[in-house]
Specification:
The protein has 2 helices and 8 strands. With 154 residues, it is an alpha+beta fold.
Length: 154
Amino acid sequence: MAQVASTAPDVLADGKTETQPKAVAAPPQETQPAKSGSEAQSTQQDTEAGESERQRVKLVGRLGRTPTVRETAAGKLVGKFPLAVHLDDGTTKWHNIVAFGERAAALKTRTEAGELVKGNEIEVVGYLHEREYQGRDGTTKTAQEIYSVAVTRH
């Protein structure tokens, strides 16, 4: 915080006044440079895009299949399983759940221990992601997946 010196008279015990500099705190100044209109707009768009891409979800449902874990060519673990969420109106909505790295390793360990098998009710906390891919007929398709953060028995 910057300090500004100002002079103010002090009254002494004998009634005389003495002028001495006093330290007065200056108001804080903004430290970030101002952005041009296009920079501010692109930053706002990036923030909005990031929020829409990374929508957090919490799902409770049943495992549609025992989770599978595979290793990519680069040596990373990827775990996948479908989750059936039963809605209040009697319908079922299916979600594809994906786990990466350490979370996939934990998923594999729990699957091998028999904790996560087809039909078990679980709770998944994760983030909604969309990705595009080429279908067999050459058209571009969009897949919605939940990138899991936590998988717990319910």
